[in-house]
Amino acid sequence: MKTRLYFVLIAIMVIPILHFSSCNKVKKITAFDVLYTLPTTISTFTPSATKSGEELLYSGSIEANLDSILHANGFDPGVVGNTQFIECTVSIVQPSTVTFGWLKSARGEISDNPEFLPAREVGTVVNNDPEATTVVLIVNNTNIRPYLGTTFFYFRVFGELNGPVPADWIDLAINGKLLMHLEPLN
For residue 149, is pLDDT > 90? Predict the structure, then answer.
């Protein structure tokens, strides 16, 4: 009788342990990374009269609907885990005759609010080609998940000038790709 009681008690303790450990294993097996291409953002940069120093090239929100991303990848419900930029570019769209000859360097920052408090740097670039019309930020593989809202996040790009900007306005295209770790909720 005692043996039977011990067996029942051990079974009551072991079954939940096996169940919960196997659930974690299933979560790990079914979780995967997905590449998400951000929508292109076009913005007009109107330079100041400054010929040097840092200027804000772009600041605004970028759409990344996490629920839609999870649903499109078969997770309903699910969790977005570690997320990082793997690519970020800034390109001149118009005027077509302008290059980044006036840009010494640039850096990108992310935040969950429009005041950028706090902000997290996600990449930098030193422009070594005065004829370039696109600069590619070297991303720092920082987990940006804490800065992502449910449908968008805030992003800005600063540029360090090395001379006067040769136009009254420049249309810039901001492009990027995120690597997102998706996993099931249950």
Answer: no
